[in-house]
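JOB MANIFEST
job_type = single_chain_structure
chain_count = 1
residues = 491
[input]
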Amino acid sequence: MQLDFETTTFDKEYIVLNDTREGIVRGGRDLFDRLPQAFEGVEQIGVIGWGPQASAQAQNLRDSLAGSSVKVVVGLREGSSSREAARKAGFSEEQGTLGELFAVIAASDLVLLLISDAAQAALYQSIFQALRPGTTLGLSHGFLLGHLEQKGERFPETVDVIAVCPKGMGASVRALYLQGSDTNGAGINASFAVEQDVTGRATERALGWSVGLGAPYTFQTTLRSEYLSDLTGERSILLGGVHGIVESLYRRLRAQGLDETSAYRRSVDCVTGPISRTVSADGLIGLYRKLDAAQKEEFAQAYAAAYPVGLELTHEIYDEVSSGNEIRSVILAGQRLDRFPMSKIDQAEMWQAGEVARRDRDDDALPLDPFTAGTFCGVMMGQIDTLVEKGHPYSEIANESVIEATDSLNPYMHARGIAYMVDNCSTTARLGARKWAPRFDYLLTQAAYPAIDQKSTDLDSGLIKAFENHPIHEVLRICAEMRPSVNISVQ
């Protein structure tokens, strides 16, 4: 995928990832004084919603634009239970920074539509009618594009359509912005896309939005590419995959005679702790090189068994997303939720063991289990190779497959548990994790681990050599230079 863009407000740089040149914009608090120029013609930014992303983005943009003539206003439905939370964060009706959803849309020059996917699908026609010609519609996820394609409909031709997609959950977007108040360039990286440019200002507004959120680096993508990789990633290694991996590993370790806490340490804690920290700092190849000869052999066996599972299931997930089946299933599930609400997933033995294990955990003493590492990295590489095969830019592949996991999601999982993470993300992600985690669990348990235990000749010994020579390692090395300058802190 060849992409390029022009900006007169910010300084564009180039990086080369696997022989492909990609344009990027470096962020930083020293660029906040350029935001009024980026938002030329914008007097009001309407942030619609108050979920994790909306609340984080509204506060970040308000703080970044302080002292400028651009006003950030939050729009909520009448009677919304989130209204009080928005007031506590400093938005109010009296100041004109909190209002009714459609009134805010109609009055805003840049509308950031950050309500749930299900709400977007239900309300998009009314939202489109409220948009004034010549304004800009902003999204942080391409779900609505996928839904429109299923309906045979389009965005209004009279408005810009852009996207800025932070590579982390809303809590990370806000927390790193606050942590970086004294550290220039601290935040969550983001991708941006321009779907329609009616005003001729779409790119500048998208980049201004990203810089205003505190993104240290902004990469380019397309709206379709973003939602394909994002929905696939959250159903694979980011949520559904990691959920299924640790479930299968925990049961395997318990069957081998480990007690509950030890099994939890070597499965869940290992993935969200030492594995994620090592990959974040040194990449996948750095994790592998950290192991001794015997550990590398154990890693290689687990990797050779898990990689085909990750590759097969991520291909299936991608096909379900690109065909529209996954989007339709989310819409249908949303229609059932009033009658069949999602239950929490923290009642099984492993999740209960985690509650105990986290009470006295010593992070410095956590084991880096080579079998767990090989299994996790095998599934992750299966996702990477799927997105490579489908033609996604390497910056997007690295972010959606590795960086978002190790630098944003996994730290929260480590602090509060994977079950907590799954139960406190978007409805779309929760549904996807519940649907696909059992598939990863099943194939690892029924196919991958028996192949190792039975010393099957079907295990491809060449996979580890392909892993060692994979171009993703150089991509991650370059991307590591663009990671946030402070680590996420989970209180």
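[summary]
Strands lie at 12-17, 20-26, 44-48, 71-76, 98-100, 110-113, 136-139, 160-166, 190-196, 217-220.
Residues 232-480 form a domain with the N-(1-d-carboxylethyl)-l-norvaline Dehydrogenase; domain 2 fold (CATH 1.10.1040.10).
exit_status = 0
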